[in-house]
Amino acid sequence: MAIYYVNPAIGSNSNTGTSEDAPFASFWAVENLKLQPGDSVLLAAGSVFNDQLDLKYSGTVNAPITIGSYGVGDAPVIHSPGDGIHSLYASNIVIENIKISDTGGAAIYGGYVSNWTINNVEVDHTGLAGKAGSITIRTGSNITIENSTINDVNGDGIWIEKINGVTLLNNTVTNAHGTAADAVQLNDSKNIVISGNYFDQTGAVTPKGVLTLIRPVDAVIEGNTIVGGGFGISAQAGTNIAIHDNDISGYGGYSWSYAIGLGDSGDTRNYDISGNYIHDGVWGVSVSAAGTTTYVREGIDIYGNLFDDLTQAALKVDRPASGSFHDNFIASDVTPYSISPSIIAAGTFPVSDNTTIEEGGVTLASADSLVATDASISLVSDNGLTSHDGLKLSLDKTASDKAGAHHDTPVGENGVSDGTLLLRHFGAAALEKHGSTLGNGDHGLTIEAADLAGPENDNGISHHETAPQPLHHPPADGPIVSILQDSMLH
Question: Least packed by Cβ within 10 Å: which of 141, 177, 241, 413?
Fold first, then answer.
């Protein structure tokens, strides 16, 4: 297991390259080595390389080949008239702690590769020769991209195709430019986890959308912040897809723009869409297709989502489909649903127990006590009903008892009662519009109250039956929590 050092400022390709004092000068020397499993190629901090790095050899699962950096200073930068890093048939590779910018082609291209990890890599201003400037991986298995930043590229920010095992974790992708450009696109892949990322297309030139999955199988998309584009998440023609606890906003530009869209490009089966905050856009969840296609659309369960500031309905179903839309929270100025009359007549997509929300404010007693004084809500550590962070939602029964509330529910100074509570978390940018955030940075605690007009039955008539809402797993870097209190008058 050798370590090779590369420093164009002081190196020479006639050196052994095995010490910081005798480094190689360029990628040419590295490419003429036959790298072995466990070898590392380290680029000097602050250095600039004006060539493409070709990876020709594979590591093993337990001893991957690593491309990284050494020394103190800025990350080493790869510029190239071609790709930044290019590889075919090389597996068990780790690329970390470098920057790739101003390339003619892709930042990183891998074809027929397996077991790659791309960690803490910065990509900026790539694809200058008109080629896709993305991180592109085609055909293989087990690809992880994490803690990386991709900005201002030509074409899609990340393009992955025909991969079994995809993990995208805690990345930031912004401004992927082009008429067909998405921040991220995955085609014909399976066993997918996309979690804790920030995807933003608001500054892109003619973007298509943000996150596109074509024919995915077994995918979890959770805890991401998704902003801008013509649509938020396009998860078409998939099987076994979970879309949980994402903050999706700012999408538009088309009459059909949606936060979450499915039902096009093939059969769609078994979708769990829950706990998402969908706001400031056009349609909410759209089960639709271009044309009168005969695809199967079945097992679509949409529940526990919050819909706000939409110009069209929270739910659109205009092609044959089976599923349900229940226990969601919908702002009073948003149309709850738009469902084809034939689907309503068939009874295959019932709507029930959704709650209409009238927004209202809450003042906080102090950051130390985490008490919303006029709503009598507090968060304490306990062994009761808790989130996965050990936070418990409890009611101030003393305040309720003093006001003579029914069923020991909290009552504010205005005599409002009925303590239906909704505990939710989203990505880093969630609920900044409506709530006050406590804590450190983007991952504090948000508390807000709302007037709930009560759940709707199948005919859209409000009633007061409510049900506890599920707690969802928080993002890896900690949740933002939103508390909405029912303030119906009795």
Answer: 413
